[in-house]
Write a structure and sequence with these properties.
6 helices; 4 strands; 17% strand; globular
């Protein structure tokens, strides 16, 4: 498993960002029964930076907390067998890892939302990584039942890691 983290915002959250990313990524992929070692890119930016990505890729001229850019077009959530149809596109040639996609997180929003929801910055950051990892695994939250499923899965990942609203 490989995560490439670029912290262009220079965010210091008071914990090891890479360690949290790797733990959440590994737990999510375990929960989703991913049979492959995987690779994810994560960019930490600020509200201005994520607004630019949001405008460019979604046509929304506003900052958001997290953006997900999956590499795999899943037919069913977490059905990783679809990647086997085009190994040249979905697997990194040197490492053999499944390339899941890219995550962009606003450091400003991590801090704002942690304060708003009354939990730690670590919990908010981990939540956003888990949320985005599920998107990279083919989940969405456009329908109420799908949103509930994602919420449950996010909480399962964070609970398994001992990252609760209390810490």
């Amino acid at each position: 498993m490989t995560s490439y983290v670029e912290n262009e915002a220079g965010a210091d959250f008071g914990f090891d960002i890479c360690q949290v990313v790797d733990a959440v990524m590994e737990e999510t992929l375990t929960e989703e029964n991913c049979p492959y070692e995987a690779q994810v890119n994560l960019l930490i930016t600020d509200n201005e930076g994520i607004c630019e990505f949001n405008r460019e890729h979604r046509g929304v001229d506003a900052p958001t907390d997290v953006l997900s850019f999956p590499m795999i077009c899943f037919e069913r959530e977490a059905d990783f067998s679809v990647a086997e149809t085009d190994t040249a596109q979905y697997f990194e040639p040197e490492s053999g890892e499944l390339i899941l996609g890219d995550i962009i997180i606003s450091a400003d929003r991590v801090r704002e939302q942690a304060q708003k929801y009354g939990h730690s910055v670590k919990r908010e950051f981990a939540f956003l990584v888990a949320h985005s990892m599920l998107h990279l695994c083919g989940y969405d939250h456009m329908e109420e039942d799908k949103a509930e499923e994602m919420e449950r899965k996010q909480e399962n990942v964070l609970s398994a890691l001992g990252i609760t609203r209390d810490n």
